[in-house]
Amino acid sequence: MNRRDSLKSLSLLTGVTLSSGLTSGLLSSCAPTYDPGYRLKFFTPDQDELVAELVEMIIPATDTPGAKAVGVNQLIDAMMASWASEEERKMFSDGLVMLNKLADEKQRAFFVDLVADSRVETLREVEKESKKTQTNFFKQLKMLTLYGYYTSEVGATQELKYLHTAGEWKADIPYSEVGKSYS
Description:
By secondary structure, the chain is an all-alpha fold. The protein has helices at 3-14, 20-27, 45-58, 72-82, 86-107, 116-133, 137-150, 153-159, 175-178. The protein contains 9 helices and no strands.
């Protein structure tokens, strides 16, 4: 599969069209690894905290670490700083502002201070609002979270299962034989 086919597949799966700059970053080898000494490049500390909580809601810790633990928020920060267009940066920043504004209107609190049920309700409203305004903030957040998590070492080796099929190629292997999705 060449890069163009990869882009078509990514766009079909997520329903998001990406700019060439953001796509180049996604297709390069910038898989996330949590770095406690990471210096923010685009987000403010408050925005980074908010994005970390959002990615953890999308892929929470279970028997494997969640998106926050593998540094997906740091990857998104780097992507926004290095690869996103001005339009994409603005859309993402405006989406974070919209999220906190809705949380404040409903609960008189920042999103990160809400209880779990209120967070989910607020995210549903943001998703509806994103669809109305055609900003696609929430789609972009989900797509970057999935990309970041499943290209991390944890996502690719602990969450997914690699099944080497040397010699014989089987097009249809029952899930019960492997117990995980393939990487």
